Amino acid sequence: MGKESLEIALIKYNKKTWSKSALLGAIIGLAVIVPGISGSTVAIIFKLYDQFLYAIGNLFKAFKRCFLFLLPIGLGIVVGFLLGLFGVKKLLDIDMFAVVCLFAGLMCGAFPAVKDEIKGIQWNKKRVGLFLLGIAIPVALGCISAIGTIEGGLEASGDNVFNKVKTWQVLLAVVIGFAVGVTQVVPGLSASALLMSVGWYASLMESVSLTYVKSNPSVLLVYGGLGVGFLLGLFVFSKLLTFIFGKSRLTAYTMIVGLSLGSILSMLCNGDIVGVYMEWFSGEKSGGQIALSVGLGVALFAVGSFVSYLLVRFERKKGAQATETEALPSPKTEE
Prior knowledge:
By secondary structure, the chain is mainly α. 77% of the residues lie in helices and 0% in strands. Helix 4 (63-115) packs parallel to helix 10 (219-266), helix 5 packs across helix 10 and helix 6 (167-183) packs across helix 10 (219-266).
């Protein structure tokens, strides 16, 4: 395939499109913190995914053009990340199960937007295999971390894994950071869901405070490893996906749809959320408290699903209208 086929036109901003990109960035920033949100899924809903992917992967090749496109998204990411960091942290302390259910619902409601990308596809063994592999990866990660929490016991499940940072944790942070970077460009994947699946989410959220950093400054090495890995994952995978989509978009998307579905399942089965279940069964929570948490979680899941699906329907309608407009014959000029 020729090089030209991989080129993607980036939109020229006006006030409306600039604000739209900034909003996308804010959601991506939230996605790093908030369990269940996939920034790339939202980018698909906003019809900015291919451009977002291309701009990141070609930032150094066409710096000015890509930088100007990414600027409002980058500013939004900073705002969304900070809001998520301080706001969601407090909500998780109140009722982690209910909050996770809300964002699992948001992800579930947005799932049809990802599935739309392979609408009418001809399935074969390769595509079915990739779809099933996509489901298996996040589910397997979630189950492995859940087993680790169960084996460690209830007391260990509340310990911060960074209380005594070891060299292998810093090296692992680079790998996990790379994977987190990948979640920002692969639709359906959630950075926080990934961190939950490896049992790092709660510990990282707890460690983000001056008090903790002062008492355990070696945690900064973990942050550094995550940052380096994140940037590598973001740039490398953006370029790789742009190339893969140029070669075989539909086949690649079968795995992405599987990853999206698997991530939803892993939200309710991972190391961090299993710690909540263990508290319930240990008797630390009364029956009334558990019933309230479950009831609130179910309600928030329904609300999250409904709200995000409304957004999907709205964008579908806009897309259909745009297609109809493009299909209209242009008026003939008089001779």
